[in-house]
Amino acid sequence: LPLIAVCGRPNVGKSTLFNRLTGSRRSIVGDEPGITRDRIYGEIEWMGRDARIVDTGGVVPDDEALIPAEIFRQAKVGLEEADAIVMVVDGRTELASPDLELARLLLRGGKPVFLAVNKMDTDAMQSQAENFRRLGFRNVLPISAEHGSGIGDLLDAVFEVLPEPAAVIE
Ligand code: GDP
């Protein structure tokens, strides 16, 4: 199945988004050799198509100083294995330098990338998402992971770029 990776700083709402997208179809990756346990995989079905999704923020170190390094490490894993990447930012806070660096890394990576501006809970807030265009993403989508608004548009955009599963030949 195609894979979507969710990246971003702690507290922007990655796991809220992940839970909304996967419902109960999620798994904390277990003991399979060669698979790390610091990412959480789930499955999404959208418009009759299936994909896997990985929350790269599965485990965040307690030590604040390690957080930026960990975000980048996870984002690089996402760049390697995912077919599409969703960077999440908190639309209610100012951009910080880790956001800018992460955006630069992802935009250079050559994979389809989407910016989900989260916590845009009301219609009035949605226009604020435009402020985040300066990160350089072509696809900027206001969402509220908590309330569910904008999620359909985000999934429409992401699934459009995912590879179609190979046809089964009888
Ligand atoms: P993560 O660290 O990026 O995985 O972030 P979480 O999903 O744990 O969310 C961090 C905080 O933001 C939690 O208190 C969530 O309830 C809150 N949050 C997540 N999504 C939204 C949203 O759409 N609107 C609002 N107002 N809060 C949200």
Describe the protein's architecture and organization:
By secondary structure, the chain is an alpha/beta fold. It has a single domain, classed as P-loop containing nucleotide triphosphate hydrolases (Rossmann fold), CATH 3.40.50.300. It is built from five helices and seven strands; from the N terminus they run E-H-E-E-E-H-E-H-E-H-E-H. The protein has a seven-stranded mixed β-sheet, sandwiched between helices. Helix 2 (67-81) packs parallel to helix 3. The longest helix is centred in the middle third of the chain and has 15 residues, at 67-81. The protein is globular and about 55 Å long. The structure holds guanosine-5'-diphosphate. Guanosine-5'-diphosphate is lined by residues 8, 10-16, 57, 118-119, 121, 144-146.
The profile of the biggest β sheet is: 7 strands, mixed
Instruction: Let me know the CATH homologous superfamily.
Output: P-loop containing nucleotide triphosphate hydrolases
Number of strands: 7
Main-sheet strand order equals: 2-3-4-1-5-6-7
Enter the CATH topology name.
Answer: Rossmann fold
CATH class: Alpha Beta
Secondary-structure-based class equals alpha/beta
**SSE string, helix = H, strand = E?**
EHEEEHEHEHEH
What is the architecture at the second tier of CATH?
3-Layer(aba) Sandwich
| Structural shape | globular
Gyration radius, in Å: 15 Å
Stretches where pLDDT is under 50 for at least 5 consecutive residues are 29-36
Helix content: 25-40%
Average pLDDT over all residues:
85
Features:
alpha/beta, 7-stranded mixed sheet, 170 residues, 7 strands, Rossmann fold, 22% strand, binds guanosine-5'-diphosphate
